[in-house]
Write a structure and sequence with these properties.
323 residues, alpha/beta, seven-stranded mixed sheet, four-stranded parallel sheet, 43% helix, 18% strand, elongated, binds adenosine-5'-triphosphate
Amino acid sequence: MNPIKTVAVLTSGGDAPGMNAAVRAVVRTGIYNGLKMLGINKGYEGLLNGDIEEMNLRSVGDIIQRGGTILQTARSNEFNTKAGLEKAVSMAKVFGIDALVVIGGDGSFRGAKDLSELGMNVIGIPGTIDNDISCTDYTLGYDTAMNTVLDAIDKIRDTSYSHERCSVLEVMGRKAGWIAINCGIAGGAEAIILPEKEFDIDKDIIMPIVEGRNRGKKHYLVIVAEGVGGAVEIAEYIEAKTEITTRATILGYIQRGGTPTITDRVMGSRFGACAIKCLLEGRKNRIVAIRDNKLVDIDIIEALSMKKTIDNELITLSKILAL
Ligand code: ATP
């Protein structure tokens, strides 16, 4: 007999398109397998406050196509303290929660690991647009965010071409340049500046622009990841050095929203079902992940100790294709 009868689900950290697909899959596969399903509103904050309600099959109707998260999300400082953690565990007992599914990023998984050390059964589902969770090749929201960025790049290119300008576009990615490198390649950027790599503004930005101009280019695109920042200053520097009119655009939160792409809906559905499967098969304190195109689950401590590095082949490719 599986001792897990009641499972709660929450979304935590930054919202990401595809989180709703994951919530829906967790709830529906849970109910399909005879579990009682609870939804916790506003992440760990809701767990602390007992902002918890039972979910039925209809609670998750009409949400797969919606961005954001119907459960809402929050960043909770109280949860991050010893007293907060103990309060969370005691609230979980009040509601009879046998296992908790956490959909979020690295920080949310560290919180889940702390809960597991106090005896709670937890499963993590990677949900963050940055794709910066080491144990998985894919995180929910990444594909939708990249398509949003690419749409913006295409629009900016139209005006850049018409005015023979340079555009500097800042995209999300505090510690990871996955959005920047892929959108830079897909959008035909002359230079892509990533948080993972030191850069020299003259060598890595001015040089490709000037060389491109000498070969006949008339407009230019520079992608800067949020973690590097300084898009406005970089644009001013380019204009001063090259006399090419240069404009900076910071895309910001537009990258978080929007209708999830098919990839995010299917991945959310698969991750959600996999989380329930883990619990039914007695595997606890795991992170659900996709590696080499296979759904897997990894021990939460091992998952949090992994490191992910940016793909150097993509960096080389981006430089060749910018010629
Ligand atoms: P994103 O990548 O979108 O920012 P995230 O899950 O990393 O998502 P955080 O704000 O880092 O977002 O974490 C969400 C919540 O998880 C925090 O508000 C906090 O309550 C909890 N948390 C974060 N870091 C830790 C930690 N080191 N230990 C325990 N709990 C944590």
